[in-house]
Amino acid sequence: MNIYFACSLTGGRDDEAIYRAIVEHLQTLGHEVPTEHLAHPEVMELEKIIDPAEVYQRDIAWLQACDGVIAEVSTPSHGVGYEIAYSLSLGKPVLCCHRRGMPVSKMLLGNDTPGIMVRSYENEVDALATVDVFLAGLSAG
Questions:
Q1: What is the pLDDT of residues 6-34, one digit of tens each?
Q2: Residue among 60, 77, 71 nearest 26 (CA)
Q3: Which domains are assigned to the chain?
């Protein structure tokens, strides 16, 4: 499957290790992740040289082509929020996962749009298990 991975860039990179773990897990399972570069430490340098309009067009095309979206939302991000809302408007299934105990927007927690799943995780093993549950739902649907 084609899975769009979303995470904070400009809002902070404290969760980079879990970003990398999720992307590597998806790739190990054989999924295509067009946004895999977001999990790499050098992403901020790479993204600085790309025009904002180009990023928008690229990411919108990737969202339109994906089978589902996995968004790590522990660190608030305007872009990730936009990607989530846009994906839901297209009818794409979305997993929003976050570290347990982190404050998460009530716009996500209270969202009852079909296809959204908001889940907390305790550690990397728990996060990857949450991803697996989401993927199993995609495969079954």
A1: 998 877 768 889 999 999 999 999 999 99
A2: 71
A3: 3-140 (3.40.50.450)
Give dist(CA 24, CA 6) in Å, integer.
14
Question: How far apart (Å, rounded) are the C-alpha atoms in residues 71 and 5?
Answer: 6
Q: In 3D, which of 119, 60, 120, 130 has the Cα closest to residue 92? A: 60
Contact 36, 5 (CB under 8 A): yes
Distance CA 138, CA 7 (A): 20
Q: Indicate the residue type of 57.
A: Q
**Residue numbers in the chain where pLDDT is lower than 50:** none
**Predicted local confidence at residue 49, as pLDDT:** 77
